[in-house]
């Protein structure tokens, strides 16, 4: 398969490629590209069929995932996947911001269901993700724990800023089916969830984290949960990919391995 792709690359005349690139903005170039697209699609389909015809799937899968999904939903499954499919390489790019997986040439992305791009096929790969409000015991010794969402206004809050939009995460609270949002002070703001957790451990204030990302610290006692009755839950993580793309055998194997 790799040799076939390399051969196709070698026989492509560089001069003609540059000429096509220069003319692509002109009407004649656009017409030529329109005429070539079916042939390009046919070649892509033939390459996918060649992949599928192999006895053992092979290739490289590029995945874009946010940090928590990468650590707790994808990474635990990779060892078994590597043993079952030793000829498939996985490139996992961790990015908490919005990613256009088509423009950035990813085979798939992993995000929470409500943030998926349009025209995508999605596969659930995790259970819903509970959130927790936490603070260090030393901080709570000087600042009594809040008993309801309104009480959070009296506390130093450690907040997360989304990389792609620049928006600071609004804290949500949920109890008995009732949901409320609060804009908090944001005494410390970061775009890195590890830094935010470690800042809470250091006693900077209260923060909101996915439970898996705080579980070790809660078990060790370096973080303590507050507002436990008001903790919300994030939707499950979904693996998603373009509905118009013909999946290779390698990609199909990866999707199957990642299913919840």
Structure notes:
The protein has 260 residues and is α/β, with parallel strands linked by helices. The protein has three domains: 2-53, no CATH class; 59-127 and 237-258, Periplasmic binding protein-like II (D-Maltodextrin-Binding Protein, domain 2); 129-234, D-Maltodextrin-Binding Protein, domain 2, CATH 3.40.190.290. Helix content is 38%, strand content 25%. The protein contains eight helices and 13 strands. The strands form three sheets. Strands 5, 6, 9, 10, 11 and 12 form a six-stranded mixed sheet that branches. Helix 4 (67-84) links the parallel strand 1 (59-65) and strand 2 (88-94). The radius of gyration is 24 Å and the shape is elongated.
Features:
260 residues, alpha/beta, D-Maltodextrin-Binding Protein, domain 2, 3 domains, six-stranded mixed sheet, five-stranded mixed sheet, 8 helices, elongated, disordered N terminus
In brief, what are we looking at here?
The protein is an alpha/beta fold and 260 residues long.
Overall form: elongated
- What's the average pLDDT? 86
Helical proportion? 25-40%
How many distinct helices?
Answer: 8
* CATH top level assignment of the largest domain: Alpha Beta
Which class do the helix and strand fractions yield? Answer: alpha/beta
Per CATH, what is the topology of the largest domain?
D-Maltodextrin-Binding Protein, domain 2
What's the alpha carbon Rg, rounded to whole Å? 24 Å
Distance between the termini: 30 Å
Which residues sit in consecutive blocks of at least 5 with pLDDT less than 50? Answer: 1-24
Order of helices and strands: HHHEHEEEEHEEEEHEHEEEH
How many domains comprise the coordinates?
A: 3
User: How many strand units?
Assistant: 13
Please summarize the sheet with the most strands.
6 strands, mixed
* CATH architectural group of the largest domain: 3-Layer(aba) Sandwich
Estimated share of beta-strand residues: 15-25%
